[in-house]
């Protein structure tokens, strides 16, 4: 299978898996995002990278998804017609949490660092 076709399959699977996860499950105040899907060239297996922000622990979300992988695969196979339906494996991608932590750290540094005094009158501020 060409790389371009595989990219299209990955994107289509990402959208459909995301739709199933949002409609079929209750996440109790947790935001679940399908960040990436990587299907093997033979279409037999797929890794689904999940971003999680909210109240539920990530391990619990991933466990719930992997327990219900058969249901998810069944629904997706009815929407996406492929030679065979890939066996999905859900994995946690913590980049969203790390991004939030980084933004909070930058905000904290900005608040706690002393500010430079203004440039004396008549001198040009080279950093502005």
UniProtKB/TrEMBL annotation:
Localization of this protein: Cytoplasm
GO cellular component, one term: cytosol
Main location: cytoplasm
Keywords annotated in UniProt: Cytoplasm, Ribosome biogenesis
Organism superkingdom: Bacteria
GO biological process, one term: maturation of SSU-rRNA
UniProt-listed Gene3D superfamilies: 3.30.300.20
Entries under SUPFAM superfamilies matching the protein: Ribosome-binding factor A, RbfA
Entry GO MF terms: ribosomal small subunit binding
InterPro entries linked: KH_dom-like_a/b, RbfA, RbfA_dom_sf, Ribosome-bd_factorA_CS
UniProt-listed HAMAP family: RbfA
Assembly with partners or alone: Monomer. Binds 30S ribosomal subunits, but not 50S ribosomal subunits or 70S ribosomes.
Function text: One of several proteins that assist in the late maturation steps of the functional core of the 30S ribosomal subunit. Associates with free 30S ribosomal subunits (but not with 30S subunits that are part of 70S ribosomes or polysomes). Required for efficient processing of 16S rRNA. May interact with the 5'-terminal helix region of 16S rRNA.
Family the entry assigns: Belongs to the RbfA family.
Designated name of the protein: Ribosome-binding factor A
Species per Swiss-Prot/TrEMBL record: Akkermansia glycaniphila
Encoding gene, per UniProt annotation: rbfA
């Amino acid at each position: 299978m060409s790389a371009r076709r595989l990219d299209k399959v990955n994107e289509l699977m990402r959208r459909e898996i995301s739709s199933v996860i949002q409609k079929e499950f209750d996440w109790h105040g947790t935001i679940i995002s399908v960040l990436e899907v990587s299907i093997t060239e033979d279409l037999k297996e797929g890794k689904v990278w999940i971003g999680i922000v909210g109240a539920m622990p990530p391990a619990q979300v991933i466990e719930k998804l992997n327990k219900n992988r058969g249901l998810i695969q069944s629904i997706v196979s009815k929407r996406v017609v492929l030679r065979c339906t890939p066996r999905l494996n859900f994995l946690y991608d913590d980049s969203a949490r790390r991004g939030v932590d980084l933004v909070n750290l930058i905000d904290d540094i900005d608040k706690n660092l002393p500010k430079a005094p203004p440039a004396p009158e008549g001198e040009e501020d080279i950093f502005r």
